[in-house]
Design brief:
This protein has 23 helices and 14 strands. The chain has helices at residues 2-9, 105-118, 120-129, 137-146, 192-201, 214-223, 233-250, 275-282, 288-291, 302-319, 324-331, 335-343, 362-371, 376-385, 392-403, 407-412, 424-432, 440-452, 454-471, 478-488, 493-502, 504-512, 518-529, and strands at 15-22, 26-33, 38-39, 46-47, 50-63, 66-78, 88-90, 157-166, 170-177, 182-188, 207-210, 228-231, 256-257, 420-421. The radius of gyration is 41 Å and the shape is flat. The chain binds zinc ion (ZN).
């Protein structure tokens, strides 16, 4: 009874358990088949006459943390069919283990999955961790090679795109089942012939999404003439972007934007530093010292003043639209430091550690400094009268540190933001970005670009109309848009419209249908990383 339960727990109802041997990290089960007969593998006739017995040892899935070994009492049978060439045969256990295999079928399947998911080394390591014996990485790779090839069914919606085996040199064609989200074939080269042959061998494709090159269009037409061709949305947007490049390449003068500061602030206005920082030093308390117990304000060191000045300059230049890099270059500070100043909620206030060693006399020193006394000699003499034990150099160095260079002089050197010259790529990007994706800087640039030329303004309107038509599948508006572009005479866009007209059926399908090659981009990235 107990042994039968074990067979049930192991999900091996075909076996009758004879013996269980349990140790701390392994478990051995001796068992025999429940059946008393076996079929001859050659003539399929059933035999009851046992010739002999032998023991077969196979590894199975682990039992908890124990490696499980099955010792199977397998019989040899006589085949009594006179005409059969096989006189003696071994009984098969097709549900448990393949002939002459050393692992059960279910263990082999698990190792195969590990190999496919993780590869040889990692799969073998996990198998050992799962107490499924100690298969080598090579064993797992062999399992992959022996696995029967999966032949996917012919797709209904096929995505076609090229991908680079070696960028600039070798290209292939990637075919993707858009409904199952699976790569189904990699073809050599990116010519239409291979695609046409593949389509002829795999009938049933109804929709083909593709780029705008004629090779795939021709291949698809030849291989599957009845299929609907869809110009892929990504490639349509790429074409639009190229068209705008042409526009800016032909109108380079619009890329030079006027300085964004001139209308807001005169260029030669010196940047001012928060006066409160200096006021602490320059305004001495006059009438408080006698009545209130004196709490002199600690003077601000030159280093801190420098930090505060830098903070003000960073904030001011950023408002003028300068990049972080150019701000850092101007101040001759690290970009990270400039970034730190940019994000500080208020000017830095923490005192830098000074060389002051006026132990016991700080209050007096601060008081005198705030009164306006700047002479190290006088200060040293006064301190000595109060019993100061330190040297003159200490006082002189501290005075120099507090005095420092005047921050206003440095801040005045901050220039107005220079005129910006956009690259073609930057201009196209600014023109195509959705309004909510623009930074403040880009918004200003966009406004300036649109004001610079009526052609750019027209291109901006048309490009955004096209994006809306494409994203929202407004196919009804597409013909009107196409007519508008053709009459607009915008360089670049005009040619774009002509190319769309040549491929009108596929483009219209791309605008109106939901199918697109978006999944292919993901698949290509997987291929590139493998
Ligand atoms: Zn036989």
């Amino acid at each position: 009874m107990f042994l039968d339960t074990i067979a049930q727990l192991l999900e091996l109802p075909q076996l009758h358990v004879l013996e269980v041997d349990l140790a701390s990290d392994w478990l051995t089960i001796r068992a025999e088949p429940v059946t008393t007969t076996a079929a001859c593998p050659l003539c399929q006739s059933v035999s009851q006459r046992v010739h002999s017995c032998y023991e077969r040892t196979v590894l199975d899935l682990a039992w908890g943390v124990r490696t499980l070994t099955l010792k199977l009492e397998v019989r040899r049978f006589f085949c009594d069919v006179k005409t059969c060439l096989r006189k003696i045969f071994t009984e098969r256990l097709p549900d448990i283990v393949a002939p002459s295999a050393r692992r059960t079928t279910r263990l082999r399947q698990m190792l195969e999955s590990l190999a496919f998911e993780l590869g040889g080394e990692a799969g073998a390591a996990i198998a050992r961790w799962l107490h499924c014996g100690a298969p080598s990485a090579d064993t797992l790779l062999r399992l992959i090679r022996r696995a029967p090839p999966i032949t996917p069914p012919s797709p209904r919606c096929l995505g076609v795109d090229d991908w680079a085996m070696k960028k600039g040199h070798t290209y292939g064609t990637l075919l993707c089942d858009l409904e199952r989200h699976q790569v189904i074939e990699l073809l050599e080269g990116r010519e239409g012939d291979a695609l046409a042959k593949w389509l002829q061998a795999h009938p049933g494709v109804e929709i083909i999404t593709r780029d705008r090159a004629s090779a795939y269009a021709d291949g698809a037409k030849e291989g599957a003439p009845d299929a609907i061709q869809v110009a892929d949305r990504f490639h349509l947007l790429q074409n639009l972007s190229k068209a705008l490049r042409t526009l800016f390449e032909q109108q380079p003068q619009v890329l030079k934007l006027p300085s964004p500061t001139t209308d807001r602030k005169p260029a030669d206005t010196p940047l001012t530093v928060e006066p409160s920082a200096i006021a602490l030093i320059e305004q001495a308390p006059t009438d408080t010292a006698l009545t209130v117990p004196s709490l002199p304000v600690k003077p601000i060191s030159a280093y801190l003043r420098q930090q505060q000045a830098n903070y003000q300059v960073v904030q001011a230049l950023r408002q003028q639209g300068l990049t972080l890099r150019s701000i850092a270059q101007h101040l001759q500070i690290n970009v990270n430091t400039a970034n730190k100043y940019l994000h500080l909620p208020a000017p830095p206030a923490k005192q830098h550690r000074t060389t002051l060693k006026l132990i016991g006399h700080e209050a007096f020193f601060y008081q005198r400094w705030n009164d306006g006394e700047r002479s190290p000699k006088t200060l040293f003499a006064e301190l000595q009268q109060r019993g100061f034990q330190g040297g003159y150099t200490t006082v002189a160095r501290y005075v120099a540190e507090l005095r420092g260079p005047l921050p206003a002089d440095q801040a005045a050197a901050a220039p107005a933001a220079p005129a910006v010259r956009l690259t073609v790529t930057q201009a196209v990007r600014v023109l195509l970005l959705a309004p909510d994706q623009l930074t403040t800087e880009q918004q200003t640039q966009l406004d300036q670009l649109r004001q610079a030329s009526p052609l750019v303004e027209r291109a901006y309107t048309l490009a955004h109309q096209f994006q809306t038509i494409l994203h929202e599948h407004r196919s009804a508006e597409f013909p009107t848009w196409l007519e508008e572009v053709q009459t607009s005479q915008v360089p670049g866009l005009h040619g774009f419209a002509s190319s769309l007209k040549k491929d009108l059926a596929a483009v219209t399908a791309g605008v109106s249908l939901l199918w697109s090659n978006e999944h292919i981009a993901y698949c290509t990235s997987l291929l590139a990383s493998s």
